[in-house]
Backbone:
């Protein structure tokens, strides 16, 4: 094997290329990127949007990093088709480039729910650096911002623009913020802290229309109410990019279906990252993209490495609060015990989820103390039945869990 092609210049694609070199692969590596910029971690977009990260620090690696590792990245070079016999990538220019193995890591795109007016001026989503630049340019003259979506991305966008002095309101369809990471009690604590920072929140409401003549003037909701706004940013989640996979005849359900070696149903073609479905699950989180990319790289080299899934885990800052949500933090079935400690004024909320005395999920918000340790304990499904009350107290010694 002498040539490996990678479609996608995000985390999964670049980490796979890096891993191939670290594993001793000496052949050619070529990455095809839709964007005109080198790889940057998407969380950096929020930091840039907030004014905390200058443009020159956006990118993960300098140009010399790619040169030293002989990783060729073809920027602004979208892939049009994947061909199986011989294995090749057909570019938008019509050029065909043949490979021995191929990794499909073309990620996901922002989902814009069907609503009237979504094509007006002043309506944005945030997925790329160009998106961030467009938002910042528009923000200079339009300071009343409505953020449609109270998930992780929506809240971080809201906080970033508020830091720029904008008047920001968050609109969420569900009855609470962060519905995937927080239970109702934890979400209520978070809402209190967000509103203290000056960001207004409306929950349980669906947007029917973005109204205005040629640009945004406000939102109209399905309950008949309305909200004035100069700008609308849609943060309603993402959808995997699947057109290339479908056209190539790859097995596709909600994502590109792979086995435990990240192989698709076509020989020589692997997939990793936000477009990838493993054992029925789409992850869409950074740890999964990283672990899948690493495993895919080893299997591209025929060095058997099984991917067994990723423990759902988010550790980040939301509205200035440290938040870790790990495992079955919001359990959907029965048979679990949930124990909580909360201090809404401090923005503190802790919860553990036990199944037969073993730790299967946790929420740790408002403090970093103990967060890495409780995440590790969840990954190990530690038996905490003897300490289930004490574990939530400040200063608990996790070494007692063994």
Residues:
């Amino acid at each position: 094997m002498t040539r490996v092609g990678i479609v996608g210049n995000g985390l999964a694609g670049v980490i796979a290329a890096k891993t191939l070199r670290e594993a001793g692969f000496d052949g050619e590596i070529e990455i095809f990127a839709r964007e005109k910029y080198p790889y940057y971690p998407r969380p950096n977009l929020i930091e840039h949007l907030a004014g905390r990260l200058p443009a020159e620090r956006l990118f993960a690696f300098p140009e010399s990093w790619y040169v030293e590792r002989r990783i060729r990245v073809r920027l602004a070079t979208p892939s049009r088709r994947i061909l199986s016999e011989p294995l090749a990538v057909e570019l938008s220019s019509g050029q065909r480039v043949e490979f021995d193995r191929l990794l499909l890591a073309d990620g996901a795109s922002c989902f814009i729910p069907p609503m009237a007016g979504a094509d007006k001026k002043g309506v944005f989503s945030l997925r790329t650096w160009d998106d961030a630049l467009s938002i910042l340019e528009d923000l200079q003259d339009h300071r009343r911002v409505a953020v449609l979506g109270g998930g992780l991305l929506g809240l971080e966008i809201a906080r970033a623009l508020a830091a720029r002095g904008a008047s920001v309101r968050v609109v969420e369809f569900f009855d609470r913020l962060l519905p995937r990471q927080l239970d109702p009690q934890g979400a209520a604590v978070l809402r209190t802290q967000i509103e203290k920072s000056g960001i207004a929140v409306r929950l349980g409401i669906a947007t029917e229309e973005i109204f205005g003549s040629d640009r945004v003037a406000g939102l109209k909701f399905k309950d008949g109410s309305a909200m004035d706004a100069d700008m609308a940013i849609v943060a309603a989640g993402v959808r995997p990019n699947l057109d290339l996979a479908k056209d190539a005849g790859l097995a596709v359900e909600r994502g590109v279906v792979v086995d435990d070696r990240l192989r698709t149903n076509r020989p020589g073609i692997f997939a990793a990252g936000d477009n990838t479905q493993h054992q029925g699950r789409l992850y869409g989180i950074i740890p999964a993209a990283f672990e899948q990319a690493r495993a895919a790289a080893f299997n591209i080299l025929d060095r058997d490495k099984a991917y067994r899934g990723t423990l759902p885990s988010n550790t980040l800052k939301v509205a200035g609060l440290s938040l870790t949500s790990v495992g079955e933090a919001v359990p959907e079935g029965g048979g679990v015990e949930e124990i909580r400690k909360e201090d809404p004024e401090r923005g503190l909320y802790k919860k553990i989820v036990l199944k037969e005395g073993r730790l299967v999920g946790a929420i740790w918000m408002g403090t970093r103390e103990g967060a890495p340790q409780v995440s590790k304990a969840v990954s190990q499904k530690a038996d905490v039945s003897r300490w289930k009350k004490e574990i939530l107290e400040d200063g608990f010694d996790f070494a007692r869990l063994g």
